[in-house]
Amino acid sequence: MKIFGILLLILTVLLLLLGYLLFRLMVRRSEKPYQPPDVNKVKEEERAGVAFILEEYDRIQKWGYETVRIQTRKEETLCGYFVKAKKPTNKTVLMIHGYRSCNFYEFAHFALMYLEHFGWNVLIADDYAHGQSDGKYIGFGWMDRLDIHKWTDWLVERMGTDSKILLHGCSMGAAAVLTAAGEENLPKQVCGIVADCGFSSLYKFCKDISKKYLHIPLFPIYYIASCYCKLLAGYRYSDVNAAKSAAKIKIPTLIIHGLNDPVTACENANIIFDALKCTKKLWLVPDAGHGQSILYDRKGYENAVGGLMDYLN
Q1: Structure pTM?
Q2: CATH pick for 45-201+242-312 out of 3.40.50.970, 3.90.79.10, 2.60.40.10, 3.40.50.1820
Q3: Which tens digits make up the pLDDT trace of 183-200?
Q4: Residue 18 φ then ψ, to 5°
Q5: Is the dihedral angle over the CA atoms 257, 83, 303, 281 positive or is it negative?
Q6: Among 29, 85, 138, 179, which one is most buried in terms of CB atoms within 10 A?
């Protein structure tokens, strides 16, 4: 009986330790700054896409931008990059990037599409605990919803009460914009959403990754990590549910997903789309991987977004 008690204590300590390590791995801010991919170190089939993204990054740098900062929920600083269209306009796209990414490295090619093809301004935000923004723990879209509202308030103050704001998120950013738009106090100037390759819930995302790559069950370590997340970061993993928030959205929403996405399965797009009760459209892109729909079919991407723009105008 004594041995059993000792073994049980060892198992409990081990599970608590593994849960904490999973929490740190998932939620703790990376100590190394984000580095863009090296064309020479990616797979051959990915080189053309990476080279294009880096070329677009150089182009957006030459376009010019204004670095802006706001105070977040904890009186910490969030950093964003405001890029003006060539012709003055009060229409702006607020762009929210994905997990452990940041600003122009992820969104240069998207931003140039909005600037050149549609003539909208662009505000690219560094998420909390990413890029040049403050923060220790990643919010997985749930905590970021509050920051998105802060950014929209800044845009309304900057561009005027008659301005229009489109939310565009990719991956975790897609979950973030959907979650933000599901809040009751969404500013009236926010008129539409583009959600590209987002996950329907953090539970499903982790379950799919675990099943596909790790081959281990989520129970109980995932739930222990969630407790640490609540204690240290202020939210539980179960709070992160973009599909649940999507059911409350009232503005037109475009869901985009690559059919060959190895990170967030295309099933997530269907779950989110089915949850939406607003004006909505689903565009699935053959062969496209995670966040690569615009690379596989840029014209189709412009047409899909253009359809939403036409509706908003």
Answers
A1: 0.95
A2: 3.40.50.1820
A3: 999 999 999 999 999 999
A4: -65, -40
A5: positive
A6: 179
